[in-house]
Amino acid sequence: MATEISSSRFSTGSLILPPGSLILPPGGASRTPLPTHILIPISLIKMFDADFHGIRSLPKNVVPLTSYVLPHYSKTFLARLCEQAERYDEMVTYMKEVAKLGGELTVDERNLLSVAYKNVVGTRRASWRIISSIEQKEESKGSDKHVSTIKEYRNKIETELEKVCQDVLDVLDDFLIPNAATGESKVFYHKMKGDYHRYLAEFASGEKRKGAATAAHDAYKTELTPTHPIRLGLALNFSVFYYEILNSPDRACHLAKQAFDDAIAELDSLSEESYRDSTLIMQLLRDNLTLWTSSDSAEGEPAGAADAPKKEEGETAKPAEPAAAEEPAPAAAS
Predict the structure, then answer these.
(1) What CATH number is associated with residue 111?
(2) What are the DSSP E strand ranges found in the chain?
(3) H/E element holding 89?
(4) Residue 267 domain boundaries
(5) Which residues lie within the region annotated Disordered (predicted)?
(6) Given strand 63-64, what is the order of strands in its sheet?
(7) What phi, psi does 143 have (nearest 5°)?
(8) How far apart are CA 277 and CA 312, in angstroms?
(9) By CB count within 10 A, which of 62, 134, 249, 330 is most buried?
(10) Mind listing the pLDDT tens digit for each residue in 182-234?
């Protein structure tokens, strides 16, 4: 009899069926989707299926229970708990450990890792924007004493931001990108890499800013089908990079419009499962185009309004000023 995974007493002669796996009873009369991970001893399968010839004959969604799977499952489960409890720093820790176990992450695990880092860095970026806005207001008042204190606190936030960004970049370079087997995952990770270099460029100056901007530009240069949600998200974030970091509104608008037009041309080829995600990002591309073109043409606009910070995927705090849209964070399965 199959049992739920709730004990540490497992043998390597067992299998894990992930959620959504199908149980096909003898004769193949019906299929029942699993609501949770199920542990099934191989010996039990052999009792009911005379044609079972070992691990290689199993469907792809049936995973052998090994020393890799157990800690992998445990840490992913803990990361989901952290997400529900909104303890994102701990969520990052668990997903880093999953990445360091090696192998290709599933789409769900990939999204968990992305959500974790986006929330950790997002709160600090929102804090940095608010503090920077307050600093500018105090400078305009000539309040040197307050400015000095605020600047010191801003530097503290920047140190935290730099640490988080460098952490995710190290995980990407050392584990995730080398282990990426599919084109989709490679694009996803390079997009992440571009995003976090861009975040570094937001508050860096001089050569550091130039280096981060160059690294972001290089990481964003990847390819997928025009309607793929990851490619559209890449184009969305890359266009924001041109607008915010390189101060190139013309190139930003050109990239966003090109991505939107290319996707429109192939909209009929969209699969049902990616239609919602793709059309959502296409709408964000169009929203940014509308915002940027109206900002360029507006007269008598307050200084700095056109350069208002953009909303980032997974941002948890409200920015100090109105923001253009950017790709939403991927939803991790619960």
Answers:
(1) 1.20.190.20
(2) 3-4, 14-17, 22-23, 32-33, 38-41, 63-64
(3) helix 88-100
(4) 226-297+307-316+324-329
(5) 293-334
(6) 3-4, 38-41, 14-17, 63-64
(7) -90, 80
(8) 16
(9) 330
(10) 878 888 999 999 999 999 999 998 898 999 999 988 888 766 678 888 889 88
